[in-house]
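Please annotate this fold before class:
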Amino acid sequence: MSQSMNIGEAAEAAGVSPKMIRHYEQIGLLAAAARTVSGYRQYSERDVSLLRFIRQSRRLGFSMEQIAELLGLWSNRRRAARDVKALAQRHLDELEQKMREIAEMQAALKALVHACHGGDDPDCAILHQLAIASSEAPEPGAVGAQPVRKSKGRTVRVEQPKPVKSSSHVDLMAWTRGALASQRH
């Protein structure tokens, strides 16, 4: 027979906080806990196993929606392993795309830091490039190249991104690519 645990004991056994357990119940990843006569939540070993599964999935960066799908697959004995693999592959592809984007941002930031002389005068290539990017940001869907004047009087061309969705993340990535292109010329 399975021993029931209160929320603190279940949290400790699963390696999550009581607050997260309540959150998982609230969003439906974990079924509402059984209650004692006095209203205290009670958890089983199965609940703790589910909480550990959720914790491990979160460590791998799966979204809550993906975790819900994984939990559904885990509890379905008729599942096809290919379905689990496809979900994990999609997540891996997303992570690899984010890593490429972070590498682009890192390279752009390195180029900006390198371009700034860092002296005592107020002229700063970093601020100049940020100001140019904000004043000459392309309209969503704009394609082409526009001249951009740099602080030392020379003009360089910064390629504008291909048509993109309108979101701050995509806008940041477009700016990052533009900053990298301007530093290469």
User: Anything to note?
Assistant: The two ends are 72 Å apart (CA to CA). The longest helix spans residues 81-115. The chain has a mean pLDDT of 82. The helical segments are 7-14, 18-27, 45-59, 64-75, 81-115, 125-135, 168-184.
